Amino acid sequence: MEREKFYITTPIYYPSSDLHIGHAYTTVAADAISRFKRQLGSDVYFLTGTDEHGQKIQRKAQEAGQEPIEFVDEVVSKIKYLWDRLYISNDDFIRTTEDRHKEVVQKIFKDIYDKGDIYKDYYEGWYCVQCEAFWSQRQLKEEQGCPDCKRPTEWVKEESYFFRMSKYADRLLDYIEKNPDFIQPSSRRNEMISFIKSGLEDLCVSRTTFDWGIPVSFDDKHVVYVWFDALTNYITAVGYGQDNEKFDRYWPADVHLVGKEIVRFHTVIWPIILMAAGIELPKKVFGHGWLVLESGKMSKSKGNVIDPLILIDKYGVDAVRYYLLREVAFGSDGYYSEEALVNRINSDLANDLGNLLSRTVAMIDKYFEGTIPEPKETEDIDEELKKLAAETKTETEKAMEKLEFSTALASIWKFVSRSNKYIDETTPWILAKEESGRPRLQTVLYNLAEALRIITVLISAHLPLAPLKIRRQLGIAKESDLLTWESISTWGALPAGVQISKGEPIFPRIDTTKDKKETKKESAEEKEGKKAKKGSKEQEEGIVTIDEFKKMDFRVAKVLEAQRVPKAEKLLKLKVDVGDKVRQIVSGIAPFYQPEELVGMRIIVLVNLKPAKIFGLESQGMLLAASNEDDSHLTLATTDKDIKSGYPLT
Ligand code: MSP
Q: In CATH, what number is assigned to the domain containing residue 52?
């Protein structure tokens, strides 16, 4: 059977400054739904990217004394880094400065012009550079500020190409009425219907007073208006006019996720561009609410933006994602506060889920020497737990289909709480006292382990790291058939007899009294003072002297050969030239490198490490690599310039 395709997009972000938690919100939501659809077996295409042209970016670059492309390159690399840290699983990242996009924009602009729906005229009116939006006097009312961002607008008077939007108003209204799902949630749909009914004016779709944009192919004094350029990204990425097979596969998009202030661009301008070009319309535009602070909207000028990277460093990626998806109903506005984030960590993650895991593995460890027991005697209460597991699966599916992330997580956490309550009700510590309690104890602990396995599947779309941490402790990290959505349809897929591996708490509680102190910025004097107070012994801990460092013989080594180790899927056997001789190194890097790509590489090796036997093979040194928290990414340390093998590191 052919897999269902699912094409989802985020807005493409302006690389005018670093992104904040509000931007992360949209992308994390898109990631959660993408991961969920992949779990269901869909062929997902998840697109995000950057909207790099326009007056706003050009001015920002000027202020920074840089060329626009240099300026955006820097911000874009930071955006990509942020998405990496948030474990965003996008399939494509589009930049509007790429050639593939320029071609499509020029083509579609010309096509619409040839059909007569783009014409040349003169624009005179107001423009908001921040929102890159044109406003009529009627829309501005008295105050002249932008109706969206409230910043001052500028008077613009220039020759422009216009897009005959007015011609399509009735067709668009008809489409919206016939497709009730097209604009979601329904409150936004009603807003848009009244907006269109109040009358559509033709839209100015080119600018001449600056040049940071895609030139109109037949009149290069003009650059294409940035929203016309930006919206087109959604078809560029799936190969419009360039890869018909891909385009036919993924277009129309299943959902464009956007913030509420840009619903108008996506449900009025974008569908009319598509209608004029003779392209099918997207199936759904979902306008989510805003994350705001007690002090109002986040903005650079107010200096109140929340940096997601700081939160990830402080609380971990799972906690940040959980909070974003759980705290606020997706369509509505909601308040962000660090206090609420810490509360969620302590109550839902540490107390509920974290404790369920530690209690379960501790009891399996204590009563069954770490082996998951086989279920024996059952009671009604077990059936209740199993029934709730099945219901949770269905509810999660329903909620995720409607993009109700918070409802999905609330329902999963109801099951987490039920499982904790199951421990209190079945009192395993009392069952353990008598030999006659053993058969029942076996069932209880098996059920708890199975409940945890089911939870790992349910939360996989939302939390990228915790599921693996839990499965490691349950001893089923590698059993991929136990991770599928299908595997939670029936209770009891977890095999008994598996050896668990008790570990650290996966969500340590945040000490709120201590945390407050740490968040407060320390002055340099405070820091110095603290350092001086530390005892010398403490200072020595974790610190190496230069003599100790000198004992370690790190060398640049050229990889001469690399081979897989039969029956050890993670290991590679390397022959490396360390200057004076060739050494054999066995290392667990097979998931990250193909043997052939290593040959010729210059890596860094610690050569005077005591040789060790790995899988029966002698390893005469250790190579250096960097990897992330859960070992899902790894990169070898190399040298940035060509240098002879054997050179020591100094
Ligand atoms: N470049 C345009 C989008 C073009 S799409 C063809 C743009 N970029 S943006 O960087 O300003 O905003 C991108 C998204 O971030 C929007 O959906 C916006 O709603 C979202 N958010 C920005 N701040 C936000 C919050 N504080 N809360 C939630 N989302 C917010 O618009």
A: 3.40.50.620
- Ligand 1 atom having least distance to the Cα of 234: 6
Domain assignment present for residue 108? The answer is no
- CATH number, domain of 556, equals 2.40.50.140
CA of 23 to the centre of ligand 1 (A): 6
DSSP for 24-37?
Answer: HHHHHHHHHHHHHH
First to last CA, the chain: 59
Q: Which atom belonging to ligand 1 lies closest to the Cα atom of 20?
A: 23
| Overall number of domains in the chain | 3
Distance, CA of 380 to CA of 599 (rounded, Å): 61
Q: How far is the CA of 131 from the centre of ligand 1 (A)?
A: 10
Q: So what's the pLDDT on residue 427?
A: 96
Residues 501-528: tens digit of each pLDDT:
999 999 999 988 754 444 333 444 344 4
Reported as a single tens digit per residue, the pLDDT across 51-83 is 999 999 999 999 999 999 999 999 999 999 999
- What does pTM read for this prediction? 0.80
Closest CA to 453 of 411, 502, 487: 487
Report whether 346 contacts 515 (CB < 8 A).
no
Q: What single string gives the DSSP state of each residue in 344-361?
A: HIIIIIIIIIIHHHHHHH
- Give the sheet arrangement for strand 219-224, strand by strand: 206-207, 219-224, 215-216
Query: What pLDDT digit, counting tens, does each position of 250-294 carry?
Result: 999 999 999 999 999 999 999 999 999 999 999 999 999 999 998
Residue type present at position 631: D
Q: Which range of residues forms the domain containing residue 608?
A: 549-636
Nearest CA to ligand 1 atom 5: 11
The pick from 9, 10, 13 for probing ligand 1's pocket by mutation, whose C-beta has the most ligand atoms within 8 angstroms, reads 13
Does ligand 1 have an atom closer than 6 angstroms to the CB of 131? Answer: no
Determine whether the shortest distance from the Cβ of 14 to ligand 1 is under 6 A.
yes
